[in-house]
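#dry-run=false #mode=assembly
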Amino acid sequence: MSDIAISSSPTIPRWLSRLKPKSVGGAITTCILFLGAWVMVFPFIWMISSSVKPTDEVYDSDFTIIPKTFKGFENYYNVMFEQPYLMFILNSMIVCTGILAVQLLTAIPAAYALAKLKFRGSTILFGTVIACLTIPINVTSIPIYVGLVKVGLLDTYISMMFPFFISVFAIFLFRQFFKGFPDSIIQAARVDGFSEIEIILRLILPSAVPAIAAFSVFSFVAHWNDLYWPLIVVQSQDKMTATLSIMQYQSDFGTDHGRIFASATVVTMPMVIAFLFARRLFIRGITMTGVKG
Amino acid sequence: MSAMASLMQSKQTRLAYMLVMPAAVLILVIYILPIIIVFFVSLTDYSLVSDYYEFVGMENYEKMFSDEAFGNALVNTLIYAAIFLPAAFIVSLVLAIAIQEQKQFRSVLEVLFFLPVTSTLAAMAIVWAALMDSGQGVINHVIVSIGLEKINFLGSEDLVLFSLAIISLWSIIGFNMVLFLAGLTSIPQNLYEAAAIDGASHPIDKFFRVTWPMLGPTTMFVAVTTSITAFKLFDTVAIVTQGGPDHASEVFLYLAFLEGFEYFNMGYSSALSLFFLCIIFTFALVQAFFADRNVQY
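#status=ok
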């Protein structure tokens, strides 16, 4: 009844009638949900707002989102060019890219062999992969750290990447994915004279792009946000990652609150912006393991 | 023909070994050897400061169970988990159900709730510390403006775990919500219609007669993975409280970190690490056990 009334009335535009809630209860739920969403987003808004404020305004008792005095240019210029933040971000990029590249290079061939080739020991290897899925870095950190100290690799990019060169999760994920690839196609390709390497590169890889993309996002985000391992192996400032820098600059900037939150924004925004551009991929990639962090 | 086939087979086997070799070596070096070493180190008084060490047998484990810091860290972790787990579970589930019924706003809300998950928790932790500031934080401004007393979120021994749980909750709700949403979408719509014919048309009836039973595998998965996340609490403690005030927020992983990498008590820290592994392993076993029983579709 009300639908007819709206559609026959020319004064209400169509998009507005689409937004009309089904019931009062539905409207209330929607309002509550948006209120909740505001709470979720508020820390970001507060952070960005504080990052463009002068120090004494950050903790002002009448908080305003729009700053009374705009110090954004000074704060960000200081963080980006007078502080080594560009280098920290570059370090994070190098470490995350290096980890991901080695993870893909080692996991994809192994996963293909486990999924499609017969060889002795494959059951043991796959069982080991499953068992290792439960072992977090926090348990193996001491021997790996001591080992890196002994070979003199502490405070290098290699030491920052090393424990993550193999992702048992990637092997597991890609194996499940490759399993689903039809054997008949692989068999036909073999008959046509394709070598196994060609089969991997020309048949399997193109079909696995969605899984590889999702895993890449997962890996990159996880290691960008990682604090634990860089905290252990990084000693000098020129190897510091963006996330680790938060720990140092929190104390170094002391009371310069505007700059602290400008640096926090610089550290967290790359991932947040990337997420906004590739929402589906991020949600799929990050929730893939089930374990956050 | 069969000779040819066996030749191809042996060629394939050799290739298979080549393909798994890098991964197998890395698994050995990064997982298996360290686990073996961590076990042996836990039986010594090894400390990075000196190369001399001796076997002390079970001493580190005995120390662990009589160590006040260990007991304190374990209790803190359990209190934190007791606050964090139910909230992380229930809020996310309610949220997922509410969002699923949204038509036009669903994807917007999904993105807004998921935003904290992608953000760098270490950076957002200092934002939360500022929001929760006992003197001038925004949250306390709101509390004062509605006529209540200021709350010392991070400086009070009684409240600090609760405050850390709020931060963790903020960072995980969107994550669990997405897992629940995936579970909810896979429930066949006709079950709800059948339940409605049977008289279950009230939303609460529908929830307990269809949604909850059908969501079984997802709820188990979320419960286990959230528990593991709870035991892995580290970033916010390291950035915001450093275990304080007076060790009130010194949780398990942070204690293991301090013992190993601040005091260099490698032997003792190894024992703590293995204890931690046992906890994680228990959760994984629970999950595997239920996953086997719940595969019904």
